[in-house]
User: Which sequence fits this backbone?
């Protein structure tokens, strides 16, 4: 596959940094803090997902500050096909929120802190 064809086949990112999202299948929500245009993790990680639920590599994958309804916090790596916007936009308890974000915009999305360098 040539480089031009590769980039033409990559799906555009549906979600932006700072958006509040929820997983379609698992009960957690989070805030996007980074995005990979295509899968950028290990094959071992992907192979741990059952084949019938394994996402395609040729879509954006998001790094998400996640928390479940028990307020357990963690970082999740999630394919675009498994995310949807979380309209509720309830507050988060994840301790990294204050390290990465600097408040919210008027739509309730989080604002990435700007580098001071």
Assistant:
């Amino acid at each position: 596959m040539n480089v031009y064809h590769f980039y033409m086949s990559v799906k555009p990112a549906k979600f932006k940094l700072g958006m509040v999202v929820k997983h379609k299948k698992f009960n957690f929500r989070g805030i996007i803090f980074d995005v990979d245009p295509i899968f950028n993790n290990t094959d071992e990680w992907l192979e741990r997902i059952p084949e019938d639920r394994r996402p395609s590599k040729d879509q954006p994958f998001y790094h998400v500050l996640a928390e479940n309804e028990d307020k357990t916090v963690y970082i999740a790596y999630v394919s675009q096909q498994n995310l949807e916007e979380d309209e509720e936009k309830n507050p988060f308890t994840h301790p990294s929120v204050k390290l990465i974000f600097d408040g919210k915009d008027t739509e309730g999305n989080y604002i990435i802190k700007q580098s001071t360098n």
Remarks:
- Residues 1-6 have pLDDT under 50 and may be disordered.
